[in-house]
């Protein structure tokens, strides 16, 4: 049993400062799988080490995607390890052999959580979801289902379900993205509107968006050049400001 602070310090460096120098990295399987089951930031940090064991040392983890799915909660868009988490999640969901119901569950859950996410996270997650649609065309039914729920309470998707196969995500529609098309931030609304058109085959590069911060967004807006919009202005004359107004002959504005 390690204190949470020490757990995090170990897991941050484990994948690049410990595992490459071990003769038998598989000895860390139990430690990483236990850390992955703790939840919260510790589980996010354990992903790096688990990825190396799965990818390079043939670790079999039957419930891996179920646990990854259950890591998705509202805090995922706010934690400081967000960039690392979504980079790895992108890798884990890159295989074309994943079942459609699983990818659809991830898409739907990420979209639902995006309703309360900050703009800098939304500018990353929308291209992320678009890439998933490009890799898994069977999931596009979420976008192209013409008869979505008339009332949001009728959405068949079960957010509280821990098992992705039981979440009924493929029966739902992605009304959350349509909501984001009316977002107060114009860049978010513009990014969300991309799903109204047919997606290109080329995937979006999200590497530059993973660590986008609120400060960078604000700085970008401040540095925008203001565009002078020419306006016709006719000085108000008379009570109602109209030409040849009879009231102008009898009344004046002081």
Automatic annotation (TrEMBL):
Report the transmembrane regions from the record. Answer: 31-54, 85-107
Looking at the record, the residues that make up the CCAAT-binding factor domain are 43-192
Give the highest taxon in the source lineage.
Eukaryota
- Write out the entry's keywords from A to Z: Membrane, Transmembrane, Transmembrane helix
The GO annotation for biological process reads: ribosome biogenesis
Question: What InterPro entries does UniProt report for this protein, alphabetically?
Answer: CCAAT-binding_factor, Noc4
- GO cellular component assignments: Noc4p-Nop14p complex; small-subunit processome
In which family does this protein belong, per the annotation? Belongs to the CBF/MAK21 family.
Q: What is this protein called?
A: NOC4L protein
- Identify the species of origin: Dicaeum eximium
